[in-house]
Amino acid sequence: MTNLKQYENMAITEIEKQIKSNNELSLEARKTSILALLYLKRSGRYKENPLYSKTSFKNYLLNFYNIREKTFDESARAFDKFPKESVKYGVGLVSKITRACGVKKEKEVLEEIKEAQKKLKTPIKREKIDEIIYKHSKPVEAKGPGYKTRYIEEARLHQITKTRYDTAIAELKVARDQIEKLKATVLKLKPFKNILDTVNEEIAEPLMA
Question: pTM for the whole thing?
Answer without folding.
Answer: 0.58
